[in-house]
Amino acid sequence: MDKKELAEFLRHRREMLRPRDVGLVEGPRRRTQGLRREEVAQLAGMSTDYYARLEQQRAPQPSVQVTTALARALRLTLDERDHLFVLIGHNAPARFLRSEHVSPTLMRVLDRLDDTPALVQTDLLDTLAMNPLAVALLGDQTFPRSRLRSSGGTPITGLARSGYYRWFMDPAERLVYPEEVHEHHGRAHAARLRAALTAGSDTPRAARILAELQEHSPEFVRMWELQEVAQSYDDCKTILHPELGRIDVDAQLLYTENRAQTLVVLTTRPGTESHSKLELLSVIGHQQLTP
């Protein structure tokens, strides 16, 4: 770990960013050039003290997960991310078409969406990033944070990071959608997994997901045998929020050039009950409406 070079690199990248670059409000009396240390720490999900010690050359070596979070917080390019890994003393992640490093272009758009739920997913339905309103609507599905799921305390790791895998293996995944659409969603997931298996960004991992589901999910096997294939996203959904009930949303998509990552923006139609519920959710966030 090259503490001196790391400190200089972090400080320089922090000073190059403006609050608006990461979706923060820039106040009129701001004196700091670039982002403050506490702002970077907040974006990376770490303590301000630990981040400050990194810039002061006093911190122990960050883990791979913390390094990944720092790269996202500082909006690093792939080359800059790899340089950060080397400075910290880790091997840089292998570069496949699929990447857990969120596309900077999609991340810049996500940063600016604060009044509608939005998230970035891979073509295997791994959720890489979510804005606060998406977390309030759907729960935190991101990796590498691996927050404990309410269904039994299992972190979202390994194959379970894929929404395709969780749909057929984790009953809690279905609580977000009305029961009458479960068959439709299941068939859509099977069809999209078939497309990812032959033309996706990580076909070996798609094959491992397929093998596990074929062995453990008779429902998946039934749907897989339909031989359906699709790359399209369900553009209209009904979300079941635990406090607000049914919320009808439309999905708008923005893809990276190789379609390995997708920015999903969920909107409601103005004047509808769902639109009012989403406006309320943007105010209450994670607060419970009932005891």
Topology, element by element:
Layout: H1 3-16, H2 37-44, H3 48-55, H4 64-73, H5 78-88, H6 104-111, E1 118-122, E2 127-130, H7 132-138, H8 163-169, H9 182-199, H10 203-216, H11 218-224, E3 236-241, E4 245-255, E5 261-267, H12 273-284
Antiparallel strand pairs: 1-2, 1-5, 3-4, 4-5
Helix pairs in contact: 2-3, 2-4, 4-5, 8-9, 8-10, 9-10, 9-11
List keywords for this structure.
291 residues, alpha+beta, five-stranded antiparallel β-sheet, 43% helix, globular
Q: Could you walk me through the main structural features you see in this protein, from its secondary elements to its overall organization?
A:
The protein is of the alpha+beta class. The protein has helices at residues 3-16, 37-44, 48-55, 64-73, 78-88, 104-111, 132-138, 163-169, 182-199, 203-216, 218-224, 273-284; strands at residues 118-122, 127-130, 236-241, 245-255, 261-267. The chain has a five-stranded antiparallel beta sheet with strand order 2-1-5-4-3. Strand 1 and strand 2 (127-130) form a beta hairpin. Helix 4 runs antiparallel to helix 5, helix 8 (163-169) crosses helix 9 (182-199) and helix 9 crosses helix 11 (218-224). The longest helix has 18 residues, at 182-199. The radius of gyration is 20 Å and the shape is globular. Residues 144-154 have low confidence and may be disordered.
